[in-house]
Amino acid sequence: MRYPKAPKSIGILGGGQLARMIALDAHSMGIEPWVLSANESDPAAQVTSFWIKGDPNKTADLKKLFKHVDVATVESEFFEPTVLKNAGKIYPQPELLGLLQDRLSQKMLLQKLNVPTAEFISVSNHIDAQTAANEFGFPFVLKKRRFGYDGYGTFVIKNKKDLSNIPGEIHGYIAEAFVPFKRELAVSFVRSINAEIISLPLVETCQKNSICHWVMGPVTHQNGYALLRLLKAFVENTKYIGIIAFEVFDTGKELLVNEIAPRVHNSAHYSMDALNFSQFEYHIRAITSQPLPDPVPRHAGFAMVNLLGSGKKSPHWIAPVDGKLHWYGKSENRLGRKMGHINVLAKNPKLALKSAINAARNISI
């Protein structure tokens, strides 16, 4: 296959840690990262000379960005797709972002393409919630269809008392059958403009207070290959461009896709040190028509531990001996905020995780 030259620049919508890590890898590829965000102190704005103050949901600000770039990407799925659609070349495609940022249309798409997921129904009022209770029994899960992340907008309805507390009108929710999982898994796929597809290793994740605590891998499952084939078909059939993460429940018997994140994702931060290319470089390669080499692990095991804020004090630490610290440069420390992460490589996943957790203890946030 003949590939075009890499572009001189790319645009990044948003200024958080994901945008920061995209920008850093763009630099390493010789590409200027133009960041459109609200504040010059944003993590992504700190690592580039090409920062534009603005709102990615405003057409006028997008026009400013596209004076300098021919292609752009997003750090979050929660931008307004109708605004992005007319701005220029943005990947993932705004129409797919629109489908995937809504948990109802996301679930319907999974169902249409035969990807296993928990049963669900749309909920707009108390009657719909009662229908969910009748169909799924207790407990069941109530989620906001849009703008939910890290547990925000997700409620477990455990009994009739919880059900009675649901307001009469609750527009924009989805109810799902509760899945008693044994562990949570994740995997990311990358599809390029050239229609090349690669997948990153399957990993196990652990959530604490609904926020990702750690990731380790690679892991296997007896139904893993079957699921990966379905997810590859999902990416092919939607003609998705860029990186996409799938969060998966392992019930012990089957694998069910819980949610989709159409962007670079916390569950693949390990790739910055564990693979020949990080998820961020793979994503840039995908949206700029560059080759997608197969991922090659640098070690038999790897792990990532998130560093979460515990208050307003200034962070301090001893530089980790067994791992690599990635700090996000956030100006404000608060409870549960993702401030950075540590990656560790080892001869097996469990040993890597043990070392990463120990290294994280030396960092006071």
Largest sheet: 9 strands, antiparallel
Unreliable segments (pLDDT under 50, ≥5 consecutive)?
Answer: none
CATH architecture annotation of the largest domain: 2-Layer Sandwich
User: What percentage of residues falls in helices of 4 or more residues?
Assistant: 25-40%
CATH topology of the largest domain: D-amino Acid Aminotransferase, Chain A, domain 1
Domains (count):
3
Number of beta-strand segments? 20
What's the CATH H-level superfamily name of the largest domain?
A: ATP-grasp fold, B domain
Percentage of β-strand residues: 25-35%
- Which of globular, elongated, flat, extended, rod-shaped describes the shape? globular
Report the radius of gyration as a whole number of Å.
20 Å
Secondary-structure content class: alpha+beta
What is the C-level CATH assignment of the largest domain?
Alpha Beta
Q: What gap, in angstroms, lies between the N and C termini? A: 48 Å
Number of helices: 11
Mean pLDDT: 95
